[in-house]
Amino acid sequence: MDRRSFLKASIVGAAAAAAPYRAAHAETQAAAGPNDVPSLAGKTIAISIVGTEHFFDIKAYQAQIAEVERLGGKVIGLDAGRNDQKLVSQLQTLVTQKPDAVIQTLGALPIVDPGLKKLRDAGIPVFTVDVVSENSINNSTSDNFSLGAQLALQLASDLGGKGNIALFTAIEGVVPCEIRLEELHAVLKHYPDIKVIQPDLREIVPNTIQDSFQKVTALLAQYPEGRLSAIWASWDIPVLGATQALLAAGRKDVLTYGVDGTPEYLALVADPAAPAGAVAVQQPELIGRTAVQNVARYLAGQKVPGTSFVPAILANKQNAQDVQKLVGQVT
After folding, report:
1. Tell me: the pLDDT tens digits for 103-158?
2. Which residues contact 121 (CB under 8 A, 6 or more apart)?
3. If 0-12 CB within 10 Å is exposed, 13-18 middle and 19+ buried, where does residue 291 land?
4. What is the maximal distance between C-alpha atoms in the chain?
């Protein structure tokens, strides 16, 4: 396929993104229905999370707690507050508490995997959300391959196949973010006129919004109007700060792209006047419930897949208002 045909295909694919999502959403909801999930009565499920200050984090965490309780189980909830030392400690504590299963939500693999291995070695079943580990029986996650490619294709379409873009580097060891970055580079191989500015912007956690605002403000001074076309990140908190910096500078020539669907950022994508190009919207509540239901099935002796993929939707300037309604962020 030549570049012109490839670009045309990407535009068509992005415009049609909502259709397969609606079908997949219905299928996933049906598959995760309450009637076919075994009870967790008499079981204690530990839910460990790296932090709950972001939209995806808190929604996935709350959904897991609610689903365990709905299925009759007892919950041990542990929030590390984005503190790596605390995260390591809370996993170690679970080794001695011996719950019937543990769900680890998010976290860089070098930080969490040693603790997950200790849990597995102690005979405690380990499940994960957005953590790809050989110590996990099942990982519930979005299809980051598909959403990463769709977001990259939307970016290329919006830019007309040319321009300079800046990237916020994914946190090392967070596999879903690494996959999204890999998919971006795979798409950009077919768009040689899209150039990635070096060096990458380094994202930090916490204070991500404030840090990205400052970094993008400095970047705009280096790249005046017409010299920069887009800013991409593997999640949407860095580009939320980036979009705020663009608005403060009055720059409408640069668009931002991210992943998650945080309400504040999705609202910017829905705003025709805001320089937010697109966001791949995840379903954290459905991901959280899926993880718990996999635990229930496993403890009941049923087989579960190694990975459970939950569909995401690409929201762009054309469909973002519909997506807001679809995912319940506006009525």
Report:
1. 999 999 999 999 999 999 999 999 999 999 999 999 999 999 999 999 999 999 99
2. none
3. buried
4. 62
In the block, which residue shows the tokens 């596999």? 175
Amino acid symbol at 30: A
CB-CB contact of 168 with 203 (8 Å): yes
Q: State the Cα–Cα distance between residues 150 and 183, nearest whole angstrom.
A: 9
The whole-angstrom separation of Cα 9 and Cα 1 is: 10
For residues 74 and 64, give the distance between their C-alpha atoms in angstroms, rounded to a whole number. Answer: 11
Q: Please choose, from the candidates 132, 318, 315, 317, the residue with its C-alpha nearest in 3D space to the C-alpha of residue 326.
A: 315
Neighbouring C-beta atoms of residue 196, cutoff 10 Å:
14
User: Per the structure block, which two tokens stand in for 109?
Assistant: 């693999």
Token pair for 111: 């930080």
Q: Token pair for residue 235?
A: 């999640």
Q: pLDDT digit string (tens) for 268-297?
A: 999 999 999 999 999 999 999 999 999 999
Residue 314's nearest CA partner among 185, 147, 152, 175 is 147
pTM, rounded to two decimals: 0.83
Burial of 298 (0-12, 13-18, 19+ CB in 10 A): middle
- Alpha carbon 101 to its chain's center: 24
